[in-house]
Structures are given as structure tokens and as C-alpha cells.
Amino acid sequence: MTPRTPIFNHDLADDIDRVLVDRHALDIRVSELAGEIARCYHKQELTIVGVLTGSLVFLADLIRRLPLRVKLSVISISSYPGRATTSRGPSITGLPPESLAGKHVLIVDDILDSGKTLLALKTQLAAHHPASLRTCVILRKQIPDFTPCTQADFAGFDVPNEFVVGYGLDYDNLYRNLPDICVLKPHCYDRQMGKT
Ligand code: 5GP
Ligand code: MG
Question: Which ligand is nearest to the CA of 160?
Fold first, then answer.
């Protein structure tokens, strides 16, 4: 008899401390967000700019639930170009081939933390003179006594101020394929630091 394929293997399951947002909650909330976005852009064409790589899973789920005419582009953002070891400020690579001028543009990213990434993206894309420019994230970090430098127009869940992985979000480019949003056990970070 062929064994059933597990959703993820034991190596990954052993690394998870706890699940913060499970796949069912994500499923429901992504549909709700799609509804909110569809109402906002009623009958208008929407140009989505997804931010690689963290938004990939969310982006794929979201766009398939949007009953709109959607054009899709993806961009990357990096604060450490090449071999730089100090931040040069976020810079965008892979700007959409099509002009954003006069378009309704929605930036889709994974998580709003300090807000610096979304603010940099908004500033740089605004220079292309879109008709409108909004932002959407699946997660928003709640940091006590801290206000991010920009807000997201659409947000899925508020999460506590902890480092999260899964549903596209990574640690050292791992764990993106976890179907839930999770917090890792401390030994995962120790391992990367060469402690275990
Ligand atoms: P911000 O510029 O808002 O401080 O940070 C946003 C970016 O930092 C996100 O796009 C994401 O790439 C990364 N980031 C912030 N918090 C987390 C987190 O808890 N987990 C992961 N995997 N990435 C995070
Ligand atoms: Mg990111």
C-alpha cells in the first residue's frame, strides 16, 4: 500500500514551537481580503505588484480569489545590494516592464513590521504616477509602544512581536513551505549560528 504523503516532513514539524495562524484561518481571511479588495476596485483593472519572495504563497492564494481584471508583476527589494554589509536603504530590482502610469496599483507583501519596506516601495512606485497606490499584507506585527512609519491599506492578521515563518515567510530561506504561520523553536536559530 502506498503511504500517504505528509503535509510536511518530520524535520520541519520538529522545528515548530507553536502555530500562530493556522491554514484554515489563513484560507478564510484571504477570501475576506479578496472581497475587501474587490469592493474597493469594483469593475476597475488592478495592477498587483508582489514583493518577492515572502509574498509568493499569499499572492498565489489572493489573486485566484479576485473577481477583477488583474495584471501581475513581481519585484524584489534589497537593502544590501551585492556584497554590501551595511544597509544602503531599500532598493527595488525588477520593476514591472509595463508602465504603472495611470494604473490602479496594489503592492502585496508578506508582513508589515517597521514599515520601512512598504514606505520605500510606495515612494518609489509613486514616482511612476499610478492612478492609485495601495498596499496589502497578510501579517501586521504588533509592537508595543511603536507605530510603523506607514500603514497597510489591507491587512490579514495582527501577530505578536515575534519572528514568524511559514506561508511564504522564511528564516534563512527555509520554512517558506510550511502551510501555517509559526514560531520556531530556539534551537533552529542556534543551529544557524553554529551552536548545535
Ligand atoms: P519592515 O521593513 O516593515 O520592518 O520589514 C518588512 C520585511 O521584513 C518583510 O517584508 C519581511 O521580509 C521581513 N520581516 C519582518 N518581520 C519578519 C518576521 O517576523 N518573519 C520573517 N520571516 N520576515 C520578517
Ligand atoms: Mg520582505
Answer: 1
The pick from 74, 78, 110 for probing ligand 1's pocket by mutation, whose C-beta has the most ligand atoms within 8 angstroms, reads 110
With beta carbons less than 8 A apart as the criterion, state whether 156 and 33 touch: yes
pLDDT at 195 over 60: no
C-alpha span between 172 and 156 (Å, rounded): 24
> Would you tell me how many other CB atoms lie within 10 Å of the CB of residue 127?
8
The rounded distance, in Å, linking the Cα atoms of 36 and 41 is: 9
Read off φ and ψ for residue 31, nearest 5 degrees: -65, -40
pLDDT higher than 50, residue 196: no
Start-end of H helices in the chain: 10-13, 23-40, 56-63, 116-126, 186-192
CB of residue 164 inside a 6 A radius of ligand 1: yes
User: What average pLDDT does this structure show over 39-59?
Assistant: 96
- Identify the residue with better confidence: 113 or 98: 113
SS3 category, 31? helix
Contacts for 117 with CB less than 8 Å, ≥ 6 apart: 51, 77, 90, 109
Q: Determine the number of helices (DSSP H) and then strands (DSSP E) in the chain.
A: 5, 8
Mutational test site, ligand 1, from 20, 113, 143, 149, max ligand atoms within 8 Å of CB: 113
